[in-house]
Amino acid sequence: MYTHNLVRALATLPPEERPRTTLFCPRSADLFKSIEPLVDRVRVYKPLLEVPPQRKLLYAARYVKTGITVSLLGEAQPELAFAARRAHVDSVFAVSNPYTRLLPNAIAWIPDLQHCALPHLFSALERKSRHHRFTRLLRDSSRHVVFSSNHALGHAGESYGPVTARTHVMPFATVPEPSWCNDPAPTQAQYGVPPVYFMNCNLWAVHKDHATLIQAVHMLARKGIKVHVVCTGDTWDRRHPDHFAALQEEIGRLGLESQFQILGLIPRIDQVMLIRGASAVVQPSLFEGWSTVIEDARALGTPVIASDFPVHIEQNAPGSLFFRQGDAEDCARAIQEHLVRPETRCHPDGQHMQRVKAFARCFVEIVRSTVSRN
Questions:
Q1: What is the average per-residue pLDDT within 266-277?
Q2: What's the rounded mean pLDDT across residues 204-218?
Q3: I need a surface site. Which of 36, 37, 247, 359 has the fewest CB within 10 A?
Q4: What 3 state SS string does 341-374 have?
């Protein structure tokens, strides 16, 4: 989704700023069919090594006006580095791995430093791997490193000491599609969703803190306030495979089965329609680099009820209410406050598209600064 939004954002720029893009995909371009019309070339290649599907991405872009060529790289296997060289790119985004040196003017992306804030959620091997990679990136004055939030940049300095790399903050924005303006009623009917409901769109991982939301709904129910929560997102946390089952058991123990509608992974457009029709999106997460679901809600004009994690406050979507992290009672208070306050839905307008263009132009400036050093 990050890559989709970046490609779509770049496509909103005026012709004199707009990049020409080449999309490199391993084995198949199926994940990117919807943005193929926005790129100039698609190259499907066969990787030599098996890697997680979500990291099998490589993009290249050429600016029409400046002649600068940029590659957006999500997995730098050597063969992708060779592909970037063959495509004659001048700069590569985004990488943070051992093959960075093979790539021209590589721009690294560090989404977050969750392993520093919540080390107990990672294995010792994962922590060591991340620490090694990030140390190399942050203490190399020849590198450019992108963060999605000011909080993440500050966290890097706190965790790794003085940062000598050239750093940039580039918050991303969700780019709405025309279909997002459709009536959500048919989708609501398809999934049997009641007229008034809240949305939670997160992987069922420990740090997403569904536990606090479950307890908050229970507290409200004990007060006679029944709310319906529709949950989307993968139910498998690779680091904690039993986590979802434990939460299901807790929902059953508290008698909340009728109040939590767990849909799992559903088509993106269906998720969007359900967010559009929701009373609010609830985001209790304990850690984010930059919350995609909050950006989705902003693009759709749906109010947000979020934990007071610094990144959520930095995003500050219109109509937001905040509650103390991990505090179920305060979460229940925020949900109840939302139920009684006047309508706060903000209809998206040109202001949001200005945020989208700012995202695209920020990327352009980062690339220019990377290339100009040479």
A1: 97
A2: 97
A3: 37
A4: CCCCCCCCCHHHHHHHHHHHHHHHHHHHHHHHCC
